[in-house]
Specification:
Blueprint: H1 5-18, H2 28-31, H3 38-48, H4 53-66, H5 70-75, H6 78-84, H7 91-108, H8 117-121, H9 128-137, H10 148-157, H11 165-175, H12 178-194
Helix pairs in contact: 1-12, 3-4, 10-12
Bound molecules: iron/sulfur cluster.
Cofactor: [4Fe-4S] cluster
GO molecular function: endonuclease activity
Family: Belongs to the Nth/MutY family.
Amino acid sequence: MTTNPEKISKIYLILSQTYEIFENTDDPWMTNGLSSNPFKSLVSVCLSTMTTTSRVVKACVPLYEKVSTFEELLKLEDEELREIIKPVAHYNRKTKNLKVMAHQIITKFNGEIPSNKKDLLSLQGVGPKVADIMMNFVFDTPSIAVDTHILRLLNRLGIVKTSSAEIAAETINTITPIEFKKHAHEWLIQHGMKVCHARKPKCEECVICNYCSYKTIG
Ligand code: SF4
């Protein structure tokens, strides 16, 4: 494992010159407005766990035609909510979680999504990844959320050596220079999804292969 600041900075510098930030892309999250306000951001991210983007879009677009506040979400019948979000994985559990979360936000936080990580983590169905995404993208507090793509990439680069996304998030949030922190998640996830594939990484196309101990090319 390396936490060499020079190596980390070099990797971020190259990735920042390679990838656009999300708001400048035609990513389906952007084009479908899945995070166009804090309500949508939180609900979309909660629905996105263990689910592909296209399935999140299939669930969220009709959902946001029906509801735009936590009060409206709470009023929606469980059966109807379950039916709408059926495209996403674990829709039964997510139906219950969304209802409890909406109730918590209304009763404990006066209808406002809490803007600190501790309170976010107290919401039903909100884990560290969702909390970090909310802190970074909604509350403007640079925070790197680690998903499966970023976890794989960080391990291959030798920056972490763990199967725990939570431990990897602690490490990468600690060692990332502040100037790269705001957009680090966006660059890392794009590289993980587009180049450093799980089964067959495209090492021959990789812009940071010189910094990778896992690379499959000479
Ligand atoms: S060299 Fe290969 S394994 Fe390493 S980061 Fe690049 S694509 Fe991934």
